[in-house]
Structure formats: C-alpha cells, structure tokens
C-alpha cells in the first residue's frame, strides 16, 4: 500500500487531508475479503492491519463477464448527459464518470437526503493486478448467478473507499471492542404515482404499488420463487404499526430488500443475483440471529420493534420519499421529455394510437429544452432514490447517549440503543436507460393487467401480498 504525492482531482479526496493518494497494489489484495455485491459493484471488507482502513469497505466496479477493454464504454458523460448534469460541478465534460458519480452523490443526493446520512467516500487508485487477484480470491464467495454474468472490471483504475455502515462506533472508540448489528433495507418506491400522463389502460398504476406489480413480472420470469409480503407503502407510511408490518414482511420474504449484519458479517438475507434461494437459505441461519440475543441482550421478537422505532424516529425515510417524488411525470410522461433532449423521433408516441393521449404528449413535446432537461433530471434523481438502500446500525447503550448518534428506548427490553442511518448506493443513473425504463414499465403493466384478468378480475392487493401462487395462461 503506497501513498502518492500527486494531489487528486478535486483536492478533497485525500487521505488524512494531506493531499496524498492511497494506491492499492497486488500485495494488498490479501487484506480485502468479499462483503457483498449488487448488479453493478462488488464490495470488499478490510481485514488487514492498517488502523486507517479498518472499518472501511472498498466498492469496485463490475462489468458483464467476458467484456474486453476494446468494448469499454466511454469513461466520460455523453453529450446529452453533459447538458443534463452541467450544474453539478465545473467542466463536467472533462471529468471521468467516477468523479462525476461522486459529485452527484455530494452535490445532488446529499442535500436532498441530509449530509449526515450520506457518505461520498474517497477514490483510491487500484492497480490492474490488485483487481485481478481480488477477482480470483472472492470467486468462491460470490453467488453463482452473479459470477455467470459479471466480473471485476480490471480496467478500472480507481475504487471507492467508504465507511462500513454495518458497523457503528464512537469516533473515539475502537471497532474491535464494540458489539453492533445493522439492518440493510432496499425500500424501493414508497408512493403511488398520480401523473396525468399515465395511460388509461394502465390506470392500476395509480392504485397498486410498483413493487407489488414488479413482483408479478419477476415471478413470471423466474427471478423470484414466491411473491414478497413486503409493501414499501407501509415502510414509508410514517405510522408505527405499518412500519412494523413492513419489517415483519421483510423478515419473512427478504429477497434483495433486507439483510442483517452482526459485527459487520451478514447473518440474515441473501446476496441476490438469482432466484431467491440464497435468501431462503438464510432462514436456516436463524440460530445466528439468535446470537443477537446473546451479545446485545435483545430478545428476538424485539428486533423488528427496534428497527421500527429507529425508522419512525428518524427523518431519513421522509427525505427519501420526497426525493423519490421528484418523479412528477412518471416514465410515461418523462419519456417524451427525453426524446426532446436527444432530438430523435419519440418511440413512445410512435406506438401510441389513442388521440387523447397523443394530444397530452404533444404538450410535453412543445416544452423547451430547459424544461425537458429538468423533467428528465428529476426523473433520474428519483430513480436513484427508488433504488438506493439504507443501513441502520445499532449498538446497546447505557442511556440516551450524546450528539454523535440518535438513540431509541425499547420498552419491551427496557433498554437504550444508539443508532445511525446511512444511505448506500446513490449512483447516478445513465440517461441512456430512459428507453429501458419505459419498456420495463410497459412490461410490468402488461403482465400485471394479464394477471388481473386471469386471476382476480379486479385489483386486490391483499390477495397478492399473501404470497399466492400465480397461474399463467399458456
Ligand atoms: O428497475 P428495478 O426497479 O428493477 O431496479 C433495479 C434493481 O432491481 P430490483 O428490482 O431492485 O431487484 C437492480 O437490483 P438487483 O440487481 O436485482 O439486485 C439494480 O439495483 C438496478 O440498478 P443498476 O442497474 O445496478 O443501476 C436497478 O435498476 P434501476 O431501475 O434502479 O436503474
Ligand atoms: N458502505 C457500506 N458499508 C457496508 N456494506 C456496504 C456498503 N456499501 C455496500 N455494502 C454492501 O454491499 C452490497 C452491494 O453494494 P451496492 O448496493 O453499492 O452495489 P450495487 O451493485 O451498486 O447495487 P445495485 O444492484 O442496487 O445497483 C450492499 O447490498 C451492502 O450489503
Ligand atoms: Zn412522445
């Protein structure tokens, strides 16, 4: 591990504030172990002896398996993305996507979600050999379905060093001495859209949570083996009883929406990346959840109550919901603004035959470039807010604690807990994904409409959330 005298690109990412960079090379790979991964990144925990790196994770990019350097996507924003994001920093046209990504987190998402819940991390330089070795070392721990489709991007020359938010420790304390546990929740969209641009045939989008409709498509495509009982609207309701209901549902059907960590190690919830087998397996690990009782004096039934109290008393979910609601137009409206920006014939209008709808869309096509940019920018910010996760880390406390953390008092166990909320995965979504978003939305709506016709004949959300089997017409 080396420190380089070269100052970094924006001067603020430097380790110890000394204008130096951290460089990870082949021999450092042994100090980094697999922690988890999503669709786009792999996250590693540090197990070496550097006090600075202990309690940190390294987030490295993945690429589709077998992609060679020659097919590398551009490292810079596209012409239209430059227009879209020109206000988030200076010279966005000449800054790499990695650095833009950090500017997006710090200058766009952090003010929306509250800086105390957002950690932009610092970029560190990683050698190709480091990434190659890490990629080999972690192969055995990665879920098979993730391995089949993706691998470490060894041509990336930097990675993001972030605090491990499954841990909680006092600035003055040492991580090693403290017992802590954490939950990771991917809440997804917490409200029902009400855009006038939603087509009449898709009226049910205004009544049924997107998560619930998407479950039907996922089941149909074999991505999940049973419907989730979780309803994001409960989690975001601001009402204790409904939040508790959401947490209980996440415990019974965690899918990729819920994980529990004890002292930084995952003890409940799957790794994602395939049919939810990994998540089902984790129920066998209830024994390890029982460990919470031993180490934190927390009765198992009190655990959902504790998470509920933390969510209820924190303003974080409210902030997240407000950010999600920046999507005022729904993709059925925003797609037209997108075509104004890229200046191409609108594919959504091309496939629409309803004169009333076309008239409404023509209003969107008459908007100025600035107005179109705002609609799409807000849509993409909301997309990030609908896809991020939050980590809430806890540790038992003697009393109400101090300013460093929030505290909750758990009546059932007569105990105080310190907790801290952090958002993770606040990545900027690519503008090019707008077409995909539109197509996915149509697919979800079509399959859901078919499900309603075949199965219930009307929209009955209670029926869906019971985990009922869905029969499909051949
Ligand atoms: O489209 P969605 O709602 O399915 O969200 C995708 C997520 O699927 P989910 O339904 O949460 O299992 C998906 O998660 P998984 O890979 O399924 O764990 C990703 O988070 C994806 O984002 P990105 O492509 O990595 O930037 C997410 O894509 P975005 O829509 O956020 O761009
Ligand atoms: N700062 C962190 N502290 C602790 N664990 C983390 C942190 N960041 C990520 N993780 C773990 O690594 C996993 C993958 O990270 P992340 O969600 O950032 O990946 P991704 O590929 O961007 O996800 P997605 O599929 O949503 O795009 C998370 O689900 C979480 O368990
Ligand atoms: Zn159009």
Automatic annotation (TrEMBL):
<comment type="function">
    <text>Phosphorylates Ins(1,3,4,5,6)P5 at position 2 to form Ins(1,2,3,4,5,6)P6 (InsP6 or phytate).</text>
</comment>
<dbReference type="Pfam" id="PF06090">
    <property type="entry name" value="Ins_P5_2-kin"/>
</dbReference>
<keyword id="KW-0418">Kinase</keyword>
<dbReference type="InterPro" id="IPR009286">
    <property type="entry name" value="Ins_P5_2-kin"/>
</dbReference>
<protein>
    <recommendedName>
        <fullName>Inositol-pentakisphosphate 2-kinase</fullName>
        <ecNumber>2.7.1.158</ecNumber>
    </recommendedName>
</protein>
<dbReference type="InterPro" id="IPR043001">
    <property type="entry name" value="IP5_2-K_N_lobe"/>
</dbReference>
<keyword id="KW-0067">ATP-binding</keyword>
<dbReference type="GO" id="GO:0035299">
    <property type="term" value="F:inositol-1,3,4,5,6-pentakisphosphate 2-kinase activity"/>
</dbReference>
<keyword id="KW-0547">Nucleotide-binding</keyword>
<keyword id="KW-0808">Transferase</keyword>
<dbReference type="GO" id="GO:0005634">
    <property type="term" value="C:nucleus"/>
</dbReference>
<dbReference type="GO" id="GO:0032958">
    <property type="term" value="P:inositol phosphate biosynthetic process"/>
</dbReference>
<dbReference type="GO" id="GO:0005524">
    <property type="term" value="F:ATP binding"/>
</dbReference>
């Amino acid at each position: 591990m080396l420190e380089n005298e070269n100052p970094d690109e924006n001067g603020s990412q430097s380790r110890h504030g000394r204008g130096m960079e951290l460089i990870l090379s082949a021999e450092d790979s042994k100090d980094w172990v697999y922690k988890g991964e999503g669709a786009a990144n792999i996250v590693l925990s540090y197990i070496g002896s550097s006090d600075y790196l202990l309690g940190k994770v390294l987030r490295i990019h993945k690429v589709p398996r077998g992609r060679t350097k020659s097919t590398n996507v551009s490292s810079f924003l596209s012409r239209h993305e430059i227009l879209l994001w020109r206000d988030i920093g200076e010279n966005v046209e000449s800054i790499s996507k990695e650095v833009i990504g950090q500017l997006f987190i710090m200058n766009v998402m952090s003010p929306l979600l509250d800086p105390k819940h957002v950690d932009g991390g610092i970029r560190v330089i990683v050698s190709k050999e480091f990434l190659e070795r890490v990629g080999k070392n972690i192969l055995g721990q990665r879920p098979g379905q993730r391995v089949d489709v993706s691998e470490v991007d060894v041509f990336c020359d930097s990675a993001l060093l972030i605090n491990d938010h499954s841990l909680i420790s006092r600035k003055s304390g040492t991580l090693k001495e403290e017992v802590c546990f954490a939950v990771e929740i991917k809440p997804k969209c917490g409200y029902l859209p009400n855009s006038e641009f939603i087509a009449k045939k898709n009226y049910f989008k205004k009544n049924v949570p997107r998560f619930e409709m998407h479950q039907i498509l996922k089941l149909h495509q074999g991505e999940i083996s049973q419907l989730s009982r979780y309803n994001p609207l409960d989690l975001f309701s601001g009402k204790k009883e409904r939040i508790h209901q959401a947490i209980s549902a996440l415990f019974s059907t965690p899918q990729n929406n819920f994980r529990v960590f004890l002292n930084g190690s995952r003890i409940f919830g799957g790794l994602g990346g395939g049919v939810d087998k990994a998540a089902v397996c984790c129920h066998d690990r209830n024994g390890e959840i029982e460990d919470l009782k031993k180490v934190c004096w927390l009765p198992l039934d009190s655990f959902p109550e504790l998470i509920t109290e933390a969510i209820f008393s924190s303003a974080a979910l409210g902030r997240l919901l407000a950010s999600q609601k920046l999507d005022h137009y729904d993709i059925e409206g925003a797609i037209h603004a997108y075509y104004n920006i890229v200046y191409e014939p609108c594919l959504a209008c091309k496939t629409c035959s309803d004169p009333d709808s076309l008239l409404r869309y023509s209003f969107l096509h008459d908007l100025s470039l600035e107005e179109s940019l705002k609609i799409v920018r807000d849509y993409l910010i909301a997309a990030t807010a609908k896809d991020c996760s939050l980590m809430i880390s806890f540790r038992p406390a003697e009393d109400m604690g101090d300013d460093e953390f929030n505290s909750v008092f758990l009546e059932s166990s007569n105990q105080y807990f310190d907790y801290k909320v952090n958002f993770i995965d606040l990545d900027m979504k690519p503008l090019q994904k707008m077409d995909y978003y539109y197509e996915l939305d149509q697919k979800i709506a079509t399959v859901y409409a078919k499900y309603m016709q075949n199965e219930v004949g009307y929209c009955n959300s209670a029926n869906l959330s019971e985990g009922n089997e869905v029969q499909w017409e051949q």
